[in-house]
Amino acid sequence: MAELQVIKIPEIQLYWSDWLPWHKIERHARLGGVSPPDSPGVYMVKTSGGEILHIGRASNLRRRVKEGLIKGKTPHSTGRRIREEFDTTNLFIRWAETVRPAAVEEHLLIDYKRRHSRLPRCVKNI
Description:
Number of helices: 4
Helix content: 25-40%
CATH class: Alpha Beta
CATH architecture: 3-Layer(aba) Sandwich
């Protein structure tokens, strides 16, 4: 006979960073730049007009955002697309640490799609 299992997932609270200009993260910390934390989390990229371009997750925010998305030092196809298609001087990024980045990313994307009837422009799928 089939077995029913109920899993209760605790509430996840996100404490978002401020929206920071792309160039502020691109710049080395010793020169006044900002580095995301070395921890798992989620991040968003938006235009100066407020359009959310990307919602992503990372096991290490600093490595994913700074090295992949911004600088292209590690593979990040969406980062390459954003760098090629958009004027990065008009882009902003924020992040939030969480121990459950995949679950949070999925929720953020589902919520975005519910509100806008589409995914952010630079998101491939949920």
